[in-house]
Amino acid sequence: MTKTALITGITGQDGSYLAEQLLDKGYRVVGVVRRSSTTPYERIAHLVDRVELVSADLLDQTSLTDVVQAAAPDEIYNLAAQSFVQTSWNQPVLTGEFTALGVTRMLEALRKGAPKARFYQASSSEQFGKVVETPQRESTPFYPRSPYGVAKVYGHWITVNYRESFDLYAVSGILFNHESPRRGLEFVTRKISDGVARIKLGLQHELRLGNLDARRDWGFAGDYVDAMWRMLQQDEPDDYVIGTGETYSVREFCDLAFGAAGLDYRNHVVQDERFFRPAEVDLLVADPAKSKTQLGWTPKVNFRQLVEMMVEADLARYHRAQ
Ligand code: NAP
Ligand code: F7E
Fold first, then answer.
1. 39, 63, 134, 231: most buried, per Cβ within 10 A?
2. Which of 17, 41, 120, 148 is catalytic?
3. Does the beta carbon of 222 sit less than 6 angstroms from any atom of ligand 1?
4. How far apart are CA 155 and CA 168, in angstroms?
5. pLDDT tens across 237-256, in order?
6. Cα 80–42–248 angle (5° rounding)?
7. Has 148 been annotated as catalytic?
């Protein structure tokens, strides 16, 4: 029988890859979009004829309950959020409404509209923040360093609480940074790959960045959405860390990305106070042992391949536009 998946955040990076993979598996995919005066849906333009788009907002309980009830999903992937860490200091209340309380609204919508549906919550390595152990695993205590991280900790624990209180199949995937050519331009990896392409084509000379010494465990988004699906196919609901187990600095990302275009980052990257954060997450690196053993999940794209994929995609995009 055809399964139905409901995805909030389908217009985002992860939503677009997840929708593609679920369609390939034969799912009926219902995507939640919020009302906007324009409808660019850039990342899912190639899918709009194959998915059903319904309108709701994380701020609006009625709209969420209605779409969950009408879609009658077997699986719900709650990917929608205010997901940019830097913005969470400028819009802390809105970030809390979307990224924290939005999760409770989705869980309430599930309880009322589809209590048997399996629920995936998009938790984040930002919950580990000022890390208390390295590498970070499922049992590592949280110490968030931004309003975004704090909101994600709330979303994580309310998912655990609803699982235990109401016997729901609800899980959190604690995903480390994952990137792709569809990553938003404000995130550092895509800002770098886009900057490299523009510099290579003579459209700009310098790239202004913040802290080059921050270290992240970066993987490919296409691999990570597969892990989300695997989490909803288990006998029992549980939470999993998803990452590569390798960590690199922003400087190392720059080195590889500029190198991929035959450039030297030291001739172009300028550090700019504007892009430093009030509180930084210095080092993240996952221990993905549990997801490997229990989900059979391993990343297919390595760091170098990821960086080169992103630079090549941005170069091709600017070439097409010329
Ligand atoms: P993204 O590209 O920023 O996408 C966010 C999505 O949320 C967009 O579809 C956006 O819709 C939607 N959204 C925002 N506010 C909404 C609202 N009030 N009502 C309904 N929809 C709303 O994020 P992503 O990188 O795909 O990440 C997906 C999820 O995983 C997020 O929850 C993020 O916090 C979390 N996460 C991401 C990473 C990562 O490295 N990418 C790691 C760990 C966790 P619009 O198109 O209308 O803006
Ligand atoms: O920053 C440093 C910055 O904005 C990475 C989100 O998907 O992953 C993401 O959060 C690092 C930070 O991602 C610039 O200070 C230096 O240390 O790409 P980012 P993030 O904050 O790690 C987690 C797992 C999520 O859950 C989030 O939703 O790079 N950095 N210079 C810079 N960062 C940005 N954005 N811009 C710079 O110019």
1. 231
2. 148
3. no
4. 15
5. 999 999 999 999 999 999 99
6. 65
7. yes
Residue 177 Cβ contacting ligand 2 at under 6 Å = yes
124 is known as an active-site residue? yes
Q: Write the pLDDT tens digit of every residue in 11-67.
A: 999 999 999 999 999 999 999 999 999 988 999 999 999 999 999 999 999 999 999
Place of tokens 């034969």: 26
> How far does the centroid of ligand 1 lie from the alpha carbon of residue 98, in Å?
10
Q: Which fold has domain 4-178+218-242?
A: Rossmann fold (3.40.50)
Determine the average pLDDT of the residues in 114-122. 98
Listed by start position, the domains of the chain span 4-178+218-242, 184-216+247-284+302-321
Residue 11 near ligand 1, beta carbon < 6 Å: yes
CATH number 3.40.50.2300 given to 184-216+247-284+302-321: no
Ligand 2, atom 15: closest residue by C-alpha: 211
Q: Residue whose CA is closest, atom 26 of ligand 2?
A: 124
Segment (H or E) for 122: strand 118-124
Please report which ligand is nearest the Cα atom of 40.
Answer: 1
pLDDT confidence bin for 69, thresholds 50/70/90: very high
Angle at the Cα of 172 (from 185 to 11), degrees rounded to 5? 35
Measured CA to CA, the distance from residue 81 to residue 153 in angstroms comes to: 13
Q: What is the pLDDT of residue 230?
A: 99
